[in-house]
Amino acid sequence: MLDWQTEERARSSLIIYHATNLGLTANSLSSLSGLSLKRTVDIWEQRNATIAEAEVIARALRISLRDLIGSEPDTGNGIRVEFKKNSFVWRENSALPFYEYRRLANSNALGTTAGLELTPLRPLSSLATEGEMVHGLHEYGYVIGKSPVEFEWITSSGPVRKTLNHGDSLYVSPFVRHRFGTLDNSHDAKIVILRIPGKIGGDQLVEASIFGEQTIRRLITDDKQWFNP
Ligand SMILES: [Fe+2]
Q1: What is the pTM of this model?
Q2: Which of 32, 154, 155, 203 could form an SS bridge with 177, CB 3.0 to 4.6 Å?
């Protein structure tokens, strides 16, 4: 059980966890890392490793420093509320933005998911790439605004467009090109968007990225045979 009372305690717990996995004690960790025996025993007993000591120990354990940085759950008793007045709102950095985004409540426990309120700001233009989104997460959308949303996606035979109304929902597979637009410029076309990783995400996805974008696509979409039968 990790100890989240302070960052130092979390860091020290992770050091002990990884060291113990390797069969190390405070004594042998001191020999391996070059940290003094006194400090190593202190870390073990007082749980007070500094970040500089964690760096030394990470190198000695041949693990990433990232593995020794605990992220304290930010949900308190399991709940996180985000008030509208405090939520982060932004538009793309352009003179004619297509979307306004509002970040919804989320937690560092699920860092690879995203919950957003999306407001399309303009009608879909005839230029197919304008406002186009492509992302590596699965996406669910639910239309909550009063005004309809124009939803377009690209298939092998060209773009397909549907008008979605209040209560309609959608799902987009990773890497499918798609975009949203309004019919009336009212800014009342609003969609709640939830983006989640598929069967593989987080550290596994970072590791798979060593093998290139095609591998990631294949891992996420899992639409090809891995071998000739
Ligand atoms: Fe999207």
Answers
A1: 0.70
A2: 154
CB neighbour list of residue 123: distance below 8 Å, 6 or more residues apart: 150, 181, 182, 183, 185
Query: 133 CA to middle of ligand 1, Å?
Result: 5
Residues in the chain: 229
Give me the domains of the chain, ranges plus CATH numbers: 7-68 (1.10.260.40), 84-196 (2.60.120.10)
- In this prediction, the residues of the chain whose per-residue pLDDT falls under 50 are none
Give which of 127, 137, 66 is closest to 96, Cα–Cα: 127
| pLDDT, tens only, 197-219 | 876 666 666 666 666 666 666 66
Ligand 1 midpoint to CA 175 (Å): 9
Provide the greatest CA pair distance for the chain.
70
